[in-house]
Design a protein that fits this description.
With 380 residues, this protein is an alpha/beta fold. It contains 15 helices and 17 strands. The structure holds glutamic acid.
Length: 380
């Protein structure tokens, strides 16, 4: 795929229920196969793909032939129980046509919000990716009740994307993006193809366009964009109505793209500071040390050594050649890749690794630098 997606290595794809399930006919198998064809192609091009799929409740409803009225919580949960098992099977079968394995992950809110469980969920998903599987993620609807649920998969997908330090979150939906007003009601509605920052104006454009089968409308998509962009993940809302939706997006189909802002919020920095990198570290040269003290990112060029084994998104210590600990941060590369690009220019990354990863080894929004005096004491 000659591709608008090539700058993004790790990609989370969220699929809305109405794309996958037809009210009358049930699962749209042809569409799912076309999506899995696209996933296989992206994987072959070096991307890592995670799927967040809705559709458990919608599918369970059709399997159980439940009435079209609003269901009670326990009916929805029963529908999810029946639908999820079917959903997992069809993903697994469709990906298997390409020799790919699917791994099912069902999350509840606490799994991304409590640090210990967050680390555990992240480790499992990272391992699945390392093993070459495609994680297929949904909310654990059968046990989640209103107080303890994400409630919609747009927000769930955004949390997963930031948890996994994904480069891009794709929300495939039955609309092709954001309009200045609801397009069905207002013929003058303007399509918004790019959002640099989520302002009050942008939020005001998000009228609710949810359908009967899915919970998320434009409001939850804008909420998801806020979570994603704060976490340094770009996001795009694109139509998934036609077959091969990812191929269409890669070829430049109309969509609304949201820039990541990268967060320097103190809460995030505190959280980074609270992590324990143990024996994982990058050793940096003097020039890089000075750059970090001036608030810059850590580039591969300034790294002289890589210690320990880690996965992209792990916290690693930053030390200088004398062994003084300078700080720590979330690294953008697995340890093997970090080794390969250490000491090299960012422009060489694509040639060295076969994909165009981030220019920064650790982005400045993802790192904390300890005060110089403290580092000096450690050095003595
Ligand atoms: N988790 C729900 C399901 O799989 C979907 C929630 C949503 O539509 O956002 O049915």
């Amino acid at each position: 795929m000659a591709s608008k997606l090539s700058p993004y290595r790790r990609i989370v794809v969220k699929i809305g229920s109405s794309l996958l399930v037809d009210r009358k006919d049930g699962l749209k198998g042809g569409w799912l196969d076309s999506l899995c064809d696209d996933i296989a192609e992206l994987r072959a091009a070096g991307h890592e793909i995670l799927v967040v799929s809705s559709g458990a409740i919608a599918l369970g409803r059709t399997v159980l032939d439940l009435p079209a009225r609003t269901l009670k919580l326990e009916e929805n949960q029963a529908a999810a129980a029946v639908g999820q098992i079917a959903l997992a099977r069809v993903f697994s079968q469709s990906l298997a046509r390409h020799g790919l394995t699917a791994g099912q992950i069902l999350l509840t809110l606490g799994d991304t919000e409590q640090r210990r469980r967050y680390l555990n969920a992240r480790a499992t998903i990272s391992t699945l990716l390392q093993l070459g599987s495609v994680p297929v993620i949904n909310e654990n609807d059968t046990v989640a009740t209103s107080e303890i649920r994400y409630g919609d998969n747009d927000r769930l997908a955004a949390r997963v994307a930031t948890m996994m330090t994904a480069d891009l979150l794709i929300l495939l939906s039955d609309v092709d993006g954001l309009y200045s007003a609801p397009p069905k009601l207002n013929p003058d509605a303007r399509f918004v193809d790019h959002v640099g920052e989520i302002t009050a104006d942008i939020e005001a454009m998000a009228g609710d366009v949810g359908t009967e089968l899915s919970r998320g409308g434009m409001v939850t998509k804008i909420e998801a964009a806020k979570v994603a962009s704060r976490g340094g993940t770009a996001m795009v809302i694109a139509s998934g109505r036609a077959e091969h939706p990812l191929e269409a997006l890669a070829r430049g189909a109309r969509a609304t793209w949201f820039d990541p802002v990268g967060s320097s919020s103190s809460a995030r920095k505190k959280w980074i500071a609270g992590q324990l990198p143990r024996e994982r570290a990058v050793v940096i040269d003097e020039g890089a040390e000075q750059a970090l003290r001036r608030g810059k990112s850590l580039l591969p060029a300034g790294v002289v050594d890589v210690r320990g084994t880690f996965t992209r998104g792990d916290t690693v210590a930053i030390v200088n050649a004398a062994g003084a600990r300078l700080g720590q941060g979330l690294i953008a590369y697995d340890s093997a890749d970090a080794q390969r690009i250490a000491g090299r220019r960012s422009s060489e990354i694509e040639q060295l690794l076969g994909f165009s990863g981030r220019a920064e080894m650790i982005h400045r929004d993802d790192l904390i630098v300890e005060a110089a005096a403290k580092a000096a004491v450690v050095r003595e």
